[in-house]
Amino acid sequence: MAESMAEFVVYKDKAGEWRWRLVHRNTNIIADSGEGYERKAGAENGIQSVKDNAPDAPIKYLD
Asked: Cystine design at 42: which of 34, 37, 54, 61 (Cβ 3.0–4.6 Å)?
């Protein structure tokens, strides 16, 4: 299997909440949780939701 060009990073923010980021290997942030979670498991569930629900999401343009 080819190596991924990005990885999910789970971390605690300054408020003590758990968050995630999808970071490209060039260090650009591709996506983030947009909200903090009280528990690490909440952030992990958010990552899994993105993986499960948007693998082939279409692009919607708002002109």
From this structure: 37
Specify the pLDDT at position 27.
Answer: 97
- DSSP of 1-63: -PPPSEEEEEEE-TTS-EEEEEEETTS-EEEE-SS-BSSHHHHHHHHHHHHHH-TTPPP----
Q: Which residue has the tokens 């990073």?
A: 9
19 is in which domain, residue-wise? 6-53
Asked, for residue 35, whether it belongs to a domain, the answer is: yes
- CATH number of the domain enclosing 28: 3.30.160.160
Q: Output the pTM of the full model.
A: 0.85
